[in-house]
From TrEMBL:
The keyword Transcription applies. It comes from the Bacteria. It holds the Pfam family Peptidase_S24. It comes from Rhizobium straminoryzae. SUPFAM superfamilies: lambda repressor-like DNA-binding domains, LexA/Signal peptidase. This is Helix-turn-helix transcriptional regulator. Keywords: DNA-binding, Transcription, Transcription regulation. InterPro entries: Lambda_DNA-bd_dom_sf (IPR010982), LexA-like (IPR039418), LexA/Signal_pep-like_sf (IPR036286), Peptidase_S24_S26A/B/C (IPR015927). GO terms for molecular function: DNA binding. Residues 25-49 are annotated as: Disordered. Residues 97-218 form the Peptidase S24/S26A/S26B/S26C domain.
Length: 222
């Protein structure tokens, strides 16, 4: 099960298997040595703090561990399940729908709320928290427009309907069919401003009337 506790447990297990402390693992990945300390796993107000996808990507690269191996370090890791009929969405506890960004701009793949619908979706394994709302899906990055944060082939896990706050990474689809991954800079009742992940690409702003849906990125498989 993917949860705050299981992610940190997997990081601790990864450190132990390489004969390191959590601080040593962070240092090896080129991060602040205190990044994974137990004191950093909750904020001053008691709210849970999650390791960033960038931190996890650096740790996996530094240790040579695959994402599948990392997932196996989590308590009660879910076994991958594939081979479902086209258009049949799997249970959220073991697998989620997968679509390429280029396809996402076409009609028929989402309902009015931005939730996955219709046929033509692939399937990817992603053990989700049973308490999370249904509708989580994955978009596969295509091209280099999201470098250096996301590379071609990375999969962004998206949760429609999740609360979005300033600074969150989001996927937005316009009514003209353009789909993009950006950072939410500002949102009002009339407009929305998005920051580009790639510094060579400009920031964007839209009238809310021109936005079909927006959803928060909750995870990135890199």
């Amino acid at each position: 099960m993917l949860s705050h506790e299981s992610i940190w447990k997997a990081l601790d297990t990864l450190a132990e298997r390489h004969d390191m402390t959590a601080s040593g693992l962070a240092r090896r990945a080129g991060l602040d040595p205190t990044s994974f300390n137990k004191s950093k796993r909750h904020g001053p107000d008691g709210r849970l703090r999650w390791p960033s996808t960038e931190s996890l990507a650096k740790v996996l690269e530094a240790t040579g561990v695959s994402l599948d191996q990392f997932m196996s370090y989590m308590p009660q890791a879910v076994t991958p399940r594939t081979g479902l009929p086209e258009g049949s969405f799997p249970p959220q506890a073991s697998a989620i729908p997968l679509l390429g960004f280029a396809q996402a701009g076409a009609g028929g793949f989402f309902d009015d709320g931005g939730f996955p619908a219709g046929q033509g979706w692939d399937v990817v394994d992603f053990p989700t928290d049973p308490g999370r709302k249904a509708g989580v899906y994955a978009l596969e990055v295509q091209g280099d427009s999201m470098l250096p944060l996301y590379r071609d082939g990375d999969r962004l896990i998206v949760e429609p309907g999740a609360q979005i706050r300033r600074g969150d990474r989001v996927v937005l689809k316009t009514r003209e069919g353009e789909v993009m991954a950006k950072v939410l800079l500002r949102q009002s009742a009339r407009t929305i401003e998005l920051g580009s992940l790639n510094p060579s690409h400009p920031n964007r702003s839209f009238e809310m009337a021109d936005v079909e849906w927006i959803a928060r990125i909750i995870w990135a498989s890199q």
